[in-house]
Amino acid sequence: MKKLLRTVTALACAAMLLGLAGCTGRSTLLREADSARPLSYSERNNADLTAVAAGERAFAAQFSAAMYAQAGQNEQFVLSPVSVYAGLSLAAACAAGETKAQLLSALGVTEGQLSAGFAPYYRSLMADGKDDKGKQRTRLQLANAIYVNEGTQVNEACLGTLASDYFCHSYSADFLNDNQAANRAVTAFVKEQTNGLIDADFGISEDTAFTLINALYLKDVWNEYGNDLPSAGDMVFSDASGNGTTVPFLRGYYETGRPYEGSAFTSFFAETFAGYRIHFLLPDEGRTADEVFTAEVLTELLTSADYRAVDEENKIRYYTRCLFPAFGGGCDENAAAVLQETFGVRDLFSPRKSDLTALTGDGAYCSEVRHIAKLTVDEKGIEGAAATVLPAAGAPGPDGYEEVHLDFAVDRAFGFVLTDRYGAVLFTGVIRSL
Questions:
Q1: Residue 423: is its pLDDT beyond 50?
Q2: What whole-number distance in Å separates Cα of residue 200 and Cα of residue 190?
Q3: Domains of the chain
Q4: Beta-carbon neighbour count of residue 245 at 10 Å?
């Protein structure tokens, strides 16, 4: 896979490909993924799930910052850490030896935690909500697949593990003798699983042994009725160069809490109907979005941010709403260099050292990690890896507490982190201009 597409700013979704070069290779289903049911509340205390969730958050902070630094000053940069994390998890299931050890280190889990915790973690991300008329309101789906070149000898037990523990479909395709048809099959899979938002020719080469794919799609609205967010009127937005532009702003709903004042940034969130949160990362005056979109700041935001809803000493309850412009962005990047330099995943990309013998004895190594992501946030909701949230603005009752309502204006270049209700990092990004 040598060809990169231009960044497309449109609806939100994400896909990640691991293209592996090796032995020779139409698209035939070899093994269907096991059915993934939504996770029950009682299953959330699973220790292995907790370990995978913590690993994904830690990975997201480092990966997001490193990928943004690699991409340069992209004006609307968006990626999906959870999609890449899922793709690397598939690679770890296919790997052995030092290659596997490096992947597990990057994922922040042990082999046992990943094999037992990935399935419940995957199930925890699923969301499918319709209104009383059957109209789709919330949807979050992931899909994993492996396309094996015809002629590549594979370990059937590994395909079974991928199907049961990673909900991964297995296909065969003739990358060597009918490369165009094989690529069309991959394109069709990604397009279907992302609701048509990613329709790309990935240009997978003829010497491909197998290709691992994760595709992700999310959509949510702002409230249970699917109504648009109200307008906050026109406001001035200052881009990364300090140039002010008057644009329409949206007025989010009041959420319990007050802005978190971090190291060189302030943060608050807008929440969708199903509980997805867009945590805005607003640099302090005199700082830039580039300066605060770092692994350290993202880690602080994901682990330490306390929105302090109640001041017990002064008997005050706080409610804050975000005023923010509609925005969107995306990326189309090769993540191989970041994985090697930031996470130490080196052997996977070495023709000499790569060890993928859990899947195949036919020598294979990763030639590229292609990541495409797209996200749109507007008055109707979000599309990508996210969902709709019902604002929590209920009255606390006559208990002697004063209520204070605040506005948090996202009026200059900013970073953001989009999480689900349990803290999974679905999207991150930096919006330098509108």
A1: yes
A2: 8
A3: 13-220+328-376 (3.30.497.10), 231-327+380-431 (2.30.39.10)
A4: 12
**If we measure between CA atoms, which residue out of 367, 33, 4 comes closest to residue 189?**
33
Say how far apart CA 284 and CA 272 lie, in whole Å.
Answer: 26
pLDDT bin (cut points 50, 70, 90) of residue 135 is confident
- Chain-centroid distance of CA 45 in Å reads 23
| CA 50/CA 59 separation, integer angstroms | 14
Q: What is the pTM of this model?
A: 0.90
Helix (H) or strand (E) holding 58: helix 47-71
- Average pLDDT (123-142) is 87
In Å, how far are 80, 176, 227, 428 from 157, measured between CA atoms? 30, 25, 49, 36
What is the phi/psi pair of residue 119, to 5°?
A: -60, -50
pLDDT tens digits, one per residue of 294-338: 999 999 999 988 898 898 889 999 999 999 999 999 998 889 999
Ramachandran bin of 106, using left for φ above 0, alpha for ψ from -120 to 50, beta for the remaining angles = alpha
The string of pLDDT tens digits covering residues 168-207 is: 999 999 988 998 998 899 888 888 889 988 888 888 888 8
Amino acid 275: pLDDT = 94
The vertex-239 CA angle with 386 and 262, nearest 5°, equals 65
Long-range contacts of 262-266, Cβ-Cβ distance < 8 Å, separation of 24 or more: 262/297, 262/300, 262/301, 262/304, 262/305, 263/296, 263/297, 263/300, 264/291, 264/292, 264/297, 265/292, 265/297, 265/301, 265/415, 266/408
Q: What does the block give as tokens for 89?
A: 């998890």
Q: CA-to-CA distance for 397 and 405, rounded, in angstroms?
A: 16
Report the distance separating Cα 407 and Cα 409, nearest Å: 6
Q: How many Å apart are CA 146 and CA 154, to the nearest integer? A: 11
Say how many CA atoms lie within 13 Å of 312 toward its Cβ: 0
Q: Which residues contact 140 (CB under 8 A, 6 or more apart)?
A: 125, 126, 127, 128, 216, 217, 218, 219, 220, 385, 386, 387, 420, 426
- What rounded mean pLDDT belongs to the chain? 87
